[in-house]
Amino acid sequence: MERIKRYLLANFEHLFVLVILLSTAGVNYLVPTKLAFLNFYFLPIILAGYYLGRRSAVLGGLLCALIMAIYVVLFPEAFQIGASPLDVYTYVSTWGGFLILAGAVVGRLQEKLADEVRTTSALNAELRRREQDLTALNQTLRDYGEDLELRVRDRTEELEQSKRAVEAMKAKVEDTLYATMDASVANLLIEGRLRTEKRNVAVMFSDLSGFTSYSEERPPELVIRDLNRYLADIEPIILAYRGHIDKYMGDGTMCEFGAPLDSEAYRLQAVLAAIKIQERVAAGDYPWTMRIGVASGLAITGMIGSRRQTYTAIGDVVNLASRLEKLAAPGRILIDRYTYEDVARFVEAHKKRALPLRGVGDAERERQLDSLHEQMTGGASDAERLYRIGQVHQELNEPVEALQYFERALRLDPDHVHFKVAYAEARLRLDSNGTISVRGKRRRVEAFEVVGLRDPLADREKFPVGFYNEYRHCAQRIPVSADLILPVEARDSRIGHATTVAVISYAIADALGLPDCDRMDILRAGYLADIGMEIVPHHLLNRRGSLSGSEYETIKQHPLAGERLLRTMGYTAENVLAIIRSSHELLDGSGYPDGLRGDTIPLGARIIVVADAYDALASWRPYRDPLARDAALDEIRRSCARGIYDPKVVETLMKLLG
User: Fold this and answer.
1) With contact defined as beta carbons under 8 Å apart, do 244 and 185 qualify?
2) How far apart are CA 643 and CA 587, in angstroms?
3) Which of 310, 314, 318, 376 is deepest in the core (most CB within 10 A)?
4) pLDDT digit string, tens, across residues 417-446
5) Can you give the pLDDT at residue 188?
6) How far apart are CA 296 and CA 288, in angstroms?
7) Using CA atoms, how far apart are residues 269 and 489, in angstroms rounded to an integer?
8) Residue 644, helix vs strand vs coil
9) Per-residue pLDDT at 526 exceeds 70
10) How much is the pTM?
């Protein structure tokens, strides 16, 4: 069967011609009406043209026409159906021509179709080849992409590991650097902004009284543990007031304020840090007490050392601070006059006797001076004590001081012989020292012993006595530690501002008849309203001139910063946070940060903004003097008339303070 199939496929054309011949002969022989059956021949010719091509179709058509012509000649009677022989010949000739033409046309069309098919097949083959190539290329790209992704992932992981290693190394370096150097100094040093210069600074020395005997009686591990606990308590305080921890000297410390970080209120920050350190040590149940000395003035600041460097201050002010610390009583703070004059409005301090600037050669005589000064009563009985004080100064080789005290003793008892003799000897000695340098002569300076912070509510210029007596207890009701707000106030010398605003706000809320829970919310919000001022650069806080637009925009962000800070600290009282956020909104919509107006501003915020304005006007600031109480109230009244403040709140303030 398979052989027959192959034979037929190989000899299809010959078989087709044979079939045509046999069919033609058969048709012509069997069909009586030849002309009617002529159109049958178009079918095989068309098939031949389609399957065998134009040549075979034309040959087939020619063969059919020739056979039919032979039949017409041999058997004319079979084709003459009511027509003349000429008509028959013409008809058959025409038919033969169309038959050949049909074969040629169909064959040509078949050839064109075959060409198109071959072209299409070739294109399909090319397309398949291209598709295979594209598939292979895609696979290659996919493999390369996967390989590249793997390489990128591996490289990224390597870079991440390198980055982590660098960050770990950086952290170690920073930890090591910060462990040996103040963080602010390290940052300025890395940024290349640390300069060697002369600048005004406040220097603080501290030392533990009784630590030496304590350390000798206990194991070293216990001593170091307690010392580190003490340092861990005082370090955050120093840093909170922008101090630079210069060095640890056993149980002592040396710190600078105003360097390397700039600060206008460096003297105040140093004294506040000293007060808070003493409070922390007193509350820490330590087996020792602390002495602190603070002095301010011009010093040389910068990095010293060759291989191991440190940032420090050099100058007389450093020596003075160290001297004040040594002369301070345990648990006390001594400051010099320059520092006292700058902080006197905020700090209570008592003037001590003039103290020697140089080292003490005779501690016993210094203690005698302290004892004699403490025995002074201010009456006539002080003559003998003044005489004895003069004698001690004479023994300390201080003729100027000795002469002053002998003179004061003579004023109280002009007839006393010993006083006269001592005064004459001191005068002769001082005259001889006018031309001869006396070795060991020392200079004494004024010192002030800090008692503590002044009560801001006790200012009679700002508050009437009745207001103070009625509302001074409110300051103790503020449920927030002063350590949270005091460092912020110190940056622009606004000590007591938070307490004042809180108490005035509470008093206004009380006079308006608000319930106690609302009054307490307003008290807390008034105290914390300006905690966000921490984000404002210090040079803007103490600016004497006007602010630029961008600088004012920076200041306007502090209520939002305060709200965010309190939230990060875990503060969740939404009423208080809403009041703090709106504490600088004004009734006419010109406030900040949200531009609220009218009753859309919480009542607590409308109260606080008035209290804040009054304290700002009636308090001293580094860039201006305070207004008198009546002048400050008049200014607030005028602002209220312009629609800035709530009239009801302003009227209540006038009744409380007017």
Assistant:
1) yes
2) 6
3) 318
4) 888 888 888 887 766 654 333 334 445 677
5) 72
6) 27
7) 10
8) coil
9) yes
10) 0.67
Report the distance separating Cα 343 and Cα 84, nearest Å.
Answer: 149
Return the pLDDT at 588: 93
Q: For strand 243-249 and strand 444-445, is the pairing parallel, antiparallel, or unpaired?
A: unpaired
3-class secondary structure, 149: helix
Mean pLDDT of 38-49: 70
Q: Where are the alpha helices (DSSP H) in 376-515?
A: 382-395, 399-412, 417-433, 465-471, 474-477, 482-490, 497-511
214: which residues sit within 8 A by CB, 6+ positions away?
A: 223, 287, 288
Burial class (CB in 10 A: 0-12, 13-18, 19+), 551: middle
User: CA–CA separation, 268 vs 605, rounded Å?
Assistant: 30
Q: Which two tokens stand for residue 578?
A: 């809403």
Helix axes 85-180, 183-191, angle to 10 degrees: 130
Distance, in Å, from the CA atom of 242 to the CA atom of 267, rounded to the nearest integer, reads 11
pLDDT band (50, 70, 90) for residue 375:
confident
As given in the structure block, the two tokens for residue 139 are 């696979």
Question: Please, are residues 335 and 447 in contact by the beta-carbon 8 Å criterion?
Answer: yes
- The per-residue pLDDT for 110 is 74
Please answer whether residues 204 and 275 qualify as being in contact, where contact means their C-beta atoms are separated by less than 8 angstroms.
no
* Token pair belonging to 347: 């700090």
Domains with residue ranges and CATH for the chain: 2-132 (no CATH), 195-352 (3.30.70.1230), 365-433 (1.25.40.10), 456-657 (1.10.3210.10)
Look-up of token digits 């961008």: 550
